[in-house]
Design a protein that fits this description.
- With 723 residues, the chain is mostly helical.
- The protein has helices spanning 2-27, 55-65, 68-76, 80-104, 106-175, 179-187, 193-214, 220-248, 257-263, 267-276, 278-308, 356-359, 366-371, 378-403, 409-435, 440-459, 466-492, 508-524, 530-551, 557-578, 584-625, 635-663, 667-692, 709-717.
- Among the domains are: 83-171; 179-276, no CATH class; 278-324 and 342-476, no CATH class; 606-719, no CATH class.
- The chain contains 24 helices and no strands.
- Helix 6 packs across helix 7 (193-214) and helix 11 packs parallel to helix 15.
- The chain is flat and about 185 Å long.
């Protein structure tokens, strides 16, 4: 079927080409030109072609027989030749119809051809126009690049001109002297704000002119004369103003701090002088130093003189030492001593002077104290004097740094130029006073006042007084150590036989030591000092030796122990009121008191119960050595001890309690000793019971007379004093 279709198509092509040849012969030019013929293209049906191979026909026929239409035609029995003619006839009809349609549309086709030709012409002209546009755009792009280059160059020139204009403007502004500046400098008072503003402007212009002159700017010569005249006028007005302020400090009854504080508002005046007229600045600084130096010296000399008039009239003298006896007599012309030497060794309320509230309290006003007939110890006067010195020195140092624009060593030098004479006068006064001062507590309090004031000065960032504090401490420490050594020596050289009658009560020298030591220990706790503790240790050793020397004057050991216990107890009690419980002094006297108390209890129990004590110790020693059989020979002694204790223990305990209460001034201490004695007696009797429980003494008839240990404890509790 496919082969038939192919063959039919080839036949139609031949018919069409033949028809076309006829039409071309008939139509002539309308068909495109006479005699125009093309070769027939048969494709695969061209048997004249070298490429046609008959063997392939069978393959095509076999393939076409597989077609569905061919199969259907073969099944229905259609005659192919007839069918081929029918198809050919139909194709001829269609071909004729197509030819007629083509002839009918020939004019339109010719018109279409003309239109296409016209369009080609239009498109050619547009191509020429677009080419012209492209060439124009190329030239415009080059022009734009040229304009960009010109714009960049113009921007560079603009920036350069603006930079030059700025520099030139600054130069001109720095050199031009406005009329407002001239008017303010020449006519305005120095206290007006506009004078200060224009003075700063003048200073800036003078600095600018100096800088430009160094660069060789010729225009500076035009304004140099004007600026110099204005500078001279400003310096003259400033000099007169500041000197008048400084001279106002000298007026009597003037509070110099008020005009001094007012000067800080005009500190730029001195800065202007320092940069433009150093000779005048030096003149003002020297005048200030001279004026303030005299004012401070006069003020403090007067204040010190009036302050010392309100000191206590009774002060410690060289004979008011710890080891000096109260019965010592002086010459006829000597001054009367203190009513009681114990007051110079007692701290009392004097320690409040170093408390935070009292340390920075307002200074003392001497004439007010004199009107009120008030008197003060030296440390209170010392605090007031040095607090005033500290306060004024801090204010002066800060003023100097701010007004005179100095710092570091230069500020220290200027400060000492102002305050040096005052500080030297204060040191000389202190040195003179300490020469005859024998009040160790006052000197020690002054040391701690200085230590605290030094910390305050450090917090205020005023290091100018550091050297002065060191000089004051260099005067106070040696004097304090000397007074302490004098007291140590006085205790060491004290002869107990010259102290009058013996008494087991606490000695006044030990009381002095207790008060004095507790005072120094309590003061030293805030800012510990190892040297102080060493000196106190030496004094403690001498006092302990002194107590032992006095105790040796008593004939009986019991009286010696009573004296030692009373003194140790008194010193311990006073120390514990002010010193810490773990201080070396407290621990030392606690150990001494415990040792002497134990010894006294044994001494106290010895007369009534000495035989019982001796037997218990001997028996326990024999039992420990394994010689308990030797106790069989002690039956008579044991019987006597049992009956003797049972008959006399109550009266002995009563007598013991009364003796203890009479011997000790501190009832609490006496009560403690009685309790210790009764406790030791119970322990002794309990040990006696254990000895009698040994097999060698267990059958002793007298054991039935032993007092029950619990009954003894109940009875002894009745003798316990209650306070």
């Amino acid at each position: 079927m496919a082969a038939a279709a192919t063959m039919a198509a080839a036949a139609r092509e031949l018919v069409l080409r033949a028809g076309t040849s006829d039409m071309e012969e008939e139509e002539g030019p309308l068909a495109g030109g006479p005699g125009l013929q093309e070769p027939l293209q048969l494709g695969e049906l061209d048997i004249t072609s070298d490429e046609f191979i008959l063997d392939e026909v069978d393959v095509h026929i076999q393939a076409n027989l597989e077609d569905e239409l061919v199969k259907e035609a073969l099944k229905t029995g259609v005659d192919l030749r007839h069918y081929s003619k029918q198809v050919e006839l139909e194709l001829q009809q269609i071909e004729q119809k197509s030819i007629r349609d083509y002839i009918q549309e020939s004019e339109n086709i010719a018109s279409l051809h003309n239109q296409i030709t016209a369009c080609d012409a239009v498109l050619e002209r547009m191509e020429q126009m677009l080419g012209a546009f492209q060439s124009d755009l190329s030239s415009i792009s080059s022009e734009i690049r040229t304009l960009q280059e010109q714009s960049g160059a113009m921007n560079i020139r603009l920036r350069n001109r603006q930079a030059v204009r700025g520099k030139l403007g600054e130069l001109v502004d720095g050199l031009v002297v406005p009329s407002a500046l001239v008017t303010a400098i020449l006519e305005a008072p120095v206290t007006e704000p506009r004078f200060l503003e224009q003075l700063q402007e003048l200073d800036a212009k003078a600095a600018a002119v100096r800088e430009q002159e160094a660069r060789g700017t010729a225009a500076c010569a035009d304004v140099r004369g004007v600026l110099d005249r204005l500078r001279v006028k400003a310096v003259t007005k400033i000099r007169e103003f500041i000197l008048q302020k400084i001279y106002s400090f000298r007026k009597p009854m003037t509070n110099y701090q008020i005009p001094q504080t007012a000067l800080l508002k005009y500190r730029f005046f001195y800065q202007f002088l320092l940069g433009n007229e150093r000779a005048t600045a030096k003149e003002i600084r020297d005048e200030y130093v001279e004026t303030l130096s005299k004012i401070y010296l006069s003020y403090y000399r007067s204040y010190l003189g009036r302050l010392m008039k309100v000191q206590y009239e009774e002060v410690a003298e060289k004979d008011d030492l710890m080891g000096v006896e109260d019965t010592a007599k002086k010459g006829f012309f000597s001054k009367p001593s203190l009513r009681s030497r114990n007051t110079i060794f007692t701290l009392g309320t004097r320690g409040s002077v170093i408390s935070p509230t009292e340390l920075e309290a307002p200074i003392l006003v001497p004439h007010t104290a004199q009107r009120g007939e008030q008197r003060y110890p030296f440390e209170a006067l010392f605090r007031s004097q040095h607090y005033a010195l500290l306060d004024n020195s801090c204010r002066e140092y800060l003023f100097i740094c701010e007004f005179f624009v100095v710092s570091g060593p230069a500020a220290h030098d200027l400060f000492h130029a102002v305050m040096g004479r005052t500080l030297s006068m204060t040191l000389k006064h202190l040195e003179s006073y300490l020469t005859d001062c024998y009040d160790a507590i006052a000197v020690f309090l002054c040391i701690h006042i200085v230590l605290r004031f030094r910390n305050i000065a450090a917090k205020r960032d005023v290091p100018a007084l550091d050297r002065y504090w060191e000089q004051v401490l260099a005067l106070l420490w040696p004097r304090f150590e000397l007074i302490l050594e004098m007291n140590v020596q006085s205790v060491r050289s004290t002869d107990p036989q010259r102290l009058g009658g013996l008494d087991t009560r606490p000695h006044y020298i030990t009381r002095r030591y207790a008060e004095f030591s507790s005072a120094l220990v309590s003061i030293n706790q805030t800012i510990p000092n190892e040297r102080t503790m060493q000196l106190l240790g030496q004094l403690q050793v001498e006092v302990e030796n002194f107590v032992l020397r006095v105790a040796a004057e008593f004939s009986s050991r019991k009286e010696q122990l009573v004296f030692l216990i009373n003194n140790y107890d008194m010193m311990l009690g006073v120390l514990m009121e002010r010193a810490a419980d773990d201080s070396k002094e407290v621990e030392s006297f606690q150990q001494l008191l415990n040792a002497r108390t134990q010894e006294f209890i044994e001494e106290l129990l010895s007369p009534p119960f000495g035989g019982l004590v001796a037997f218990v110790k001997e028996a326990e020693a024999l039992i420990e050595r394994g010689q308990a059989e030797r106790l069989r020979g002690e039956e008579a002694r044991v019987t006597q001890l049992i009956r003797g204790f049972g008959s006399s223990w109550k009266s002995s305990v009563e007598s013991l309690s009364q003796d203890v209460m009479r011997s000790f001034t501190n009832f609490r201490n006496g009560t403690s000793i009685i309790q210790g004695a009764l406790t030791q007696l119970i322990q002794l009797y309990h040990r006696f019971h254990r000895v009698l429980s040994q097999p060698q003494l267990r059958a002793l008839p007298a054991r039935a007379e032993l007092i029950n240990i619990h009954h003894l404890m109940v009875e002894l509790k009745k003798h316990k004093p209650n306070f």
